[in-house]
Every structure is written in structure tokens, then in C-alpha cells.
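Summary for the funding panel

The consortium committed to producing paired sequence-structure records for every protein in the target list. Below we show the first two records in order, beginning with the earlier of the two.
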Amino acid sequence: MNAIGRTEGFKRRVEKADTKGQSTIELLSLSLTRESA
């Protein structure tokens, strides 16, 4: 899977999770941690 496709998929997941508010931030933090690891 290429980086662009992964980023688009991640954005869609964040948009879906956005109704939960705080969990979106947690999801984003987890993803960023995983990316930099």
C-alpha cells in the first residue's frame, strides 16, 4: 500500500471517528507515534 492511499484511508477513518471527539485525538496520536517509530 502506498503512502498516499494510506493517508486517504486514515483521513476517512478520522472523519468517521470524529463524532467521538476525544477518541479522534487519541487515534491521531497513536498513528503519529506508529509512523515515527
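The next record, for a separate protein in the list, is shown here:
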Amino acid sequence: MEKAREINCVSVPSELIYVYIRGKIRMAIICFFPLSCAWQSN
């Protein structure tokens, strides 16, 4: 019983974490690409 509940608790946050990380990566790309381009041009 304990193990089954553990797997259920892990599978849901892992899905949320994946979405969260993917969102963070997109934010980082949007934020850092203009910065890196400006830095390279200088």
C-alpha cells in the first residue's frame, strides 16, 4: 500500500515539474537570447 501511494505521489509532481522546467527554459531563451546577441555584437 505504501509503495503504490508513493508512486502515485511521484508521478503527478514529475509531470508538473516537467511543465515547470519547460516553461522556465522558454523564459530563459526569451530573456537570454537578446542579451547574448547584444553582448556578442558589442
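Regarding this second record: The chain has a mean pLDDT of 75. Residues 9 and 25 are 25 Å apart (CA to CA).
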